[in-house]
């Protein structure tokens, strides 16, 4: 499958806006691992190869284990994730699949996340999930590919 656009880099104003979103999400006191996990999970759900690839590689470079990386799609069935991470992963799944149910993000999902994170941190997590979905939609729509890595 060929990419529909050869270059998908946004205009300079968009890049500035995305950098502000990144700064806001990553400065709210949420552990970086949690933000990386919600990004990876949203990207897997949306079938975004470049984001899933870069997210997993970034996490591995930061010292994440293969056990946890390989288990993200089945996080409920593994012992590898903390309760706060599980709450964030569930929130990521529900916030990514908004059209799949009449109550897109049920109170039980939100309340579980609220047990582990402050309002400011929850806002940052939601912002990062939305930002991940933003990039997923651009990449999937334009058929961007994960980079080929050999060796």
UniProtKB/TrEMBL annotation:
<dbReference type="Pfam" id="PF02627">
    <property type="entry name" value="CMD"/>
</dbReference>
<feature type="domain" description="Carboxymuconolactone decarboxylase-like">
    <location>
        <begin position="12"/>
        <end position="91"/>
    </location>
</feature>
<dbReference type="InterPro" id="IPR029032">
    <property type="entry name" value="AhpD-like"/>
</dbReference>
<keyword id="KW-0560">Oxidoreductase</keyword>
<dbReference type="InterPro" id="IPR004675">
    <property type="entry name" value="AhpD_core"/>
</dbReference>
<dbReference type="GO" id="GO:0051920">
    <property type="term" value="F:peroxiredoxin activity"/>
</dbReference>
<keyword id="KW-0575">Peroxidase</keyword>
<dbReference type="InterPro" id="IPR003779">
    <property type="entry name" value="CMD-like"/>
</dbReference>
<protein>
    <submittedName>
        <fullName>AhpD family alkylhydroperoxidase</fullName>
    </submittedName>
</protein>
